Amino acid sequence: MKYALLTTALAGTTLAAGAADFKLPQFDTTRLPNGLTVMLMERHEVPLIAVRAVVKAGAVNDGTQAGLANLTGDAILLGSTRHNKAAIDEAFDFRGAVLAGGSATEQTTVQANFAKKDADALLPLFAEIVQQPSFDAAELDKLRTRKVSGLKQAKESPRQVAGLYYRSMLYGDAPYASPAPGTVSALSALRRDDVQGFHQRWFRPDNAAIIVVGDFDPAAMRQRIEALFGQWRADGTAAQPHADYGKPVADKPRVWLVDKPDAIETTFVIGGAGIARNDPDYVPLQVLNTVLGGRFTSWLNDELRVNSGLTYGANSSFGTLGQSGTFAMSSFTASAKTQAALELALKTYDRLWSRGIDKATLDSAKAYVKGQFPPRFETSEQLASLLGDMYALGVERSQIDNFMRDVDGLTPARAAQLVERHFPRKNLQMVLIGKAADIRPIAAKYGDVTELDISADGFKPARSKPTQ
């Protein structure tokens, strides 16, 4: 057999007898002679197939050309060297199939969903655009123009960009700070040669995986994938990922005050360092975050929306990446109520330490998380996405298979330990987007303030000297 077997048929069952029996379905992982990873998962419930190409490259690889990975990920769909965009779109649309692409922080993906009977017609087109995209100049110019316009419009809605400022604040000049959508100036300067260069550097078989989930014969599909991708070659040695994409910096309380002079609301993000996607405590932390701000009946939403009426919603989350991550609470409120909302958010957050999480509250969150978990992996498309994260971010199968066990094993005492270990309590970092003239004195109460102008390009301050 010409494949190097990495993971043999891993036994598993879907949710059948009960939540406690959930296991990731069986799948095979092999590697072709050219270095391409192939992951195949059979699912015969419906005659559908989801296929996904995952490349280990994203915004962290943009360097000084912010938005390059994002533009490349979307531009892949503009046609191949053999078929233009119109022909490919027609082939997929005619069959009711879906073709999509895009880039995130650490991975770029191309995905397609189609009926089993259409695999012979659509898989070759999928293979073409992954390996031989045309990057048609006229189409690329239109795509770039739309993206630049989108960036400008996004700053009119602070909730769309608050996370980009927050990531930039915590990661500084590290690769993780690079904004995936780019900046207006950097994106405007990108040309076809830049996109082609990114594709040539990173889209190579030894840096990619082809994932197929659905109704197919595994032996026949493996042969089909080898025929379509086995001749994929790349010149030279593969570019190596950065050994350290960055860790959040939170050595003192800081506030980034982003001035939007016409704002009548203040959008805020508060938090600090979090965890990586493959952290062993990832699962129990989903339960604890559910209590704090991960569902409609969470503490934050109850206090800031239901009980006080300060906002229409408040939440918290761990933003997990391959090597590190962030934790954030976020909401928005009328400018005049900024201080009240911030104080209530921080008071509610402190309950994790001052009162802890009692058994009844914990049990409720555990039941909620267990009920939400299996539906996340019901469809072939969802499972293909999960396998893509496992490949690109180093997520272990055990994290999925042991999910129910790790949730059930969480006790109030264990919860207190995890709160102490992973939820930042000191040196909180804060992004405030609003009318600076009104909220400047409030911002100064929470740390060293750095002011930014939301109309300025990008998501970093023009100067790093804090406001005195």
From TrEMBL:
One example GO MF annotation: metal ion binding
Keyword check for Signal: yes
The Peptidase M16 N-terminal domain, residue ranges: 42-171
Peptidase M16 C-terminal domain segment(s): 190-367
Classification via InterPro entries: Metalloenz_LuxS/M16, MPP/UQCRC_Complex, Pept_M16_N, Peptidase_M16_C
Signal peptide region: 1-19
SUPFAM superfamilies registered for this protein in UniProt: LuxS/MPP-like metallohydrolase (SSF63411)
Domain of life where this protein originates: Bacteria
UniProt KW keywords: Signal
Pfam family, one: Peptidase_M16
UniProt keyword annotation of Metal-binding present: no
Protein name (record): Insulinase family protein
Organism annotation: Pseudoduganella flava
Classification lineage: Bacteria, Pseudomonadati, Pseudomonadota, Betaproteobacteria, Burkholderiales
